[in-house]
Design a protein that fits this description.
Distance between the termini: 25 Å
CATH topology of the largest domain: FAD/NAD(P)-binding domain
Bound molecules: flavin-adenine dinucleotide
Mean pLDDT: 85
Radius of gyration: 23 Å
Strand content: 15-25%
Largest sheet: 8 strands, mixed
Helix content: 25-40%
CATH class of the largest domain: Alpha Beta
Length: 562
């Protein structure tokens, strides 16, 4: 999974800021180098070397990539708008070259994959196999489905297929924030599932406890740290956001959660940043993990329980097959009694699901390990996960070797919901993240980033997982985590197995489990609507005012988030 791509040190740092961005862009596109020499608008010559791809689609294209139809708008929405102070437009953009130098040597793939413990690849399916349960997708949802199904009935014969490798998508590349919330936070629960909050909170806590227990039971080495998460109020957003955070605090406390309100001084005592004005520390109900090691550990456990895993095996279609289902793959087929679909943001095998989920790209990066002095300058002794609170938010945390993972802010939907590895690279988002990092931690001005990457998130209009069945109950699916599935994917899998087994449980009687999100409109209205929503949310982050568009979406119960 590790991609051996290095920037050419002679050429990666170019003479102008534009050139640095373009060099990064060329070097990171599709994780390959295109042999290319070209002149930029400003006459700066940029060169990269080495080629594994003959046909680089970006040769001669001086634009930073965006959706074909609305490319200009996308770029305007991102870096080229010269957004500073997290949403505030600048008349005379002063892009500090240090922010770009800090990312110039970063490797364009997930930091988590730089790990000796990555398991060997499994074989591709090239024959016809039979089983009781075929699971399509080897992220957390698919892996937990396999493990829970086996734990309940060890005699069940299970095959798991993944189009790439287990953990190669969101599950192996996320920020590692593992939250107990099943509803994408208490505010979203309040808006959509108000009557069921106590039961959903209880189920969520049980789910997180079960994950911790499984990690211990199966000895999964994934740096699980139950440090909690602090929602951080900063000088960069309207004060009304802090008022809403205080409402969340009171609600969480009334639900019996272990939460602490941090005023400016208390917040600074935890982590030092000149931008911090307060925080809400949600203790116990959130943990941090190494996401790839968790996925690899779950793979090992599934195999040890007897699950047969095929990688580089894309399921291409489903059809009824007597009392079961026939799953066609690129080179083989599986005859299964039941099928679990766990394909997240990828093109769904059931066409109807494409109305409910859209792939949204999220980008993040990791610094080099901090020195003791650098760590001392920020405090962070309790190692909590941190997340600021605007619509366009950042999430950040320490890794086991004391790097800072820093991600979020941009949430990019590409026209027609494209998903491919090229889109995992977005230098303009990394540049913006770099600027925000140094604005938050100016005392770390000598820190450099070592890795930067992106990945697709399965966004739905209710911001949280939903379930459903097809083919007379032989097929079931769990999708739509909207960027918060590291923990809730286990719950998604548990409900999925319940549905396949026809089990009634406390969860199955909730509207949360029974209801589906509202569908997205078709293209091009989908794309236009999402861009309008992004623009409105950014405006709200600047002004504190929710415009007519957002208020209308609120009334319709529609939303867009990462
Ligand atoms: C950059 C980033 C940061 C994130 N940070 C966080 C975070 O800090 N906390 C959090 O809670 N969540 C986070 N998330 C979201 C979280 O990672 C996901 O919600 C979660 O991993 C979803 O797991 P999954 O198994 O459903 O999907 P995935 O991990 O995407 O797995 C789906 C699998 O299905 C396979 N597949 C797809 N189609 C087929 C097919 N036709 N045939 C065979 N296989 C197929 C894919 O290859 C893939 O391996 C983040 C996501 C990203 C991208």
């Amino acid at each position: 999974m590790r991609r051996n791509v290095m920037l050419n040190p002679d050429t990666s740092v170019t003479h102008s800021i534009d050139c640095v961005l373009q060099t990064l862009f060329i070097a990171t596109t599709n994780h390959d180098f295109c042999t290319i020499t070209r002149k930029t608008d400003r006459g700066c010559q940029t060169q990269t070397r080495g080629s594994r791809r003959d046909n680089c689609p970006f040769v001669g294209n001086s634009k930073i990539h965006g959706p074909t139809l609305f490319g200009g708008l996308q770029v305007v929405c991102g870096y080229r708008e010269n957004v500073s102070r997290w949403g505030e437009k600048m008349e005379n953009p002063a892009i500090d070259p240090r922010h770009l130098d800090a990312i110039a040597d970063a490797d364009p793939y997930p930091y988590w994959y730089d790990d000796a413990d990555e398991p060997d690849a499994n074989p591709t399916l090239v024959r016809t196999e039979s089983c009781d349960l075929c699971i399509v997708g080897g992220g957390y949802t698919g892996l937990w489905t396999a493990i829970i199904a086996k734990e309940r009935d060890p005699s069940r014969d299970i095959i798991l297929l993944d189009a790439q490798q287990v953990g190669s998508a969101a599950s192996g590349r996320n920020g590692g924030f593992m939250e107990a919330s099943l509803t994408h936070g208490i505010a979203n629960a309040q808006q959509r599932f108000a009557d069921e909050i106590p039961v959903l909170e209880e189920l969520g806590l049980h789910n997180l406890n079960e994950i911790e227990a499984a990690i211990r039971r199966y000895n999964i080495d994934c740096d699980f740290e139950r440090t909690g998460v602090i929602d951080v109020a900063t000088t960069f957003h309207p004060s009304s956001y802090s008022d809403e955070m205080r409402e969340d605090f009171h609600q969480l406390r009334s639900l019996g959660h272990n939460v602490e309100w941090l005023d400016r001084e208390a917040m600074q005592a935890q982590i030092h940043s000149p931008t911090y004005v307060g925080g809400l520390w949600r203790k116990e109900r959130a943990a941090l993990v190494d996401p790839a090691r968790l996925a690899w550990g779950l793979k090992r456990v599934a195999e040890s329980l007897g699950v047969r895993i095929f990688e580089d095996t894309r399921a291409t279609s489903l059809e009824r097959d007597g009392v079961g289902v026939l799953v066609e793959t690129s080179l083989g087929r599986v005859r299964a009694g039941k099928v679990a679909l766990c394909t997240n943001a990828f093109k769904p095998l059931l066409k109807r699901l494409s109305h409910y989920i859209i792939p949204v790209y999220d980008y993040c990066m990791v610094t080099e390990p901090l020195t003791d002095d650098q760590l001392e300058s920020i405090g962070w002794k309790n190692r909590q996960g941190l997340s600021d609170i605007p619509n366009q938010f950042h999430y950040y945390r320490l890794t086991a070797d004391n790097r800072i993972l820093w991600g979020g802010y941009d949430a990019v939907y590409y026209f027609r919901g494209r998903v491919n590895t090229e889109l995992e690279s977005r230098p303009e988002s990394w540049a913006l993240l770099s600027r925000h990092f140094f604005e938050t931690f100016p005392q770390l001005d000598d820190v450099r980033f070592s890795h930067m990457w992106g990945g697709a998130i399965d966004t739905c209009t209710r911001f949280t997982v939903f379930w459903g069945r097809a083919m007379g109950g032989r097929v079931a699916y769990a999708l739509g985590y909207t960027g918060l599935g590291t923990g809730s994917s286990r719950f998604g899998a548990e409900v999925l197995v319940d549905q396949l087994d026809g089990r009634r449980t406390k969860a199955s009687s909730t509207k949360f489990v029974q209801d589906k999100p509202l569908p997205f409109p078709p293209e091009p209205f989908r794309f236009i609507g999402i861009q309008a929503t992004r623009w409105s949310m950014r405006r709200e982050d600047r002004t504190g005012k929710r415009n007519l568009w957002l208020r209308s979406l609120d009334r319709l119960g529609l939303g867009f988030d990462s």
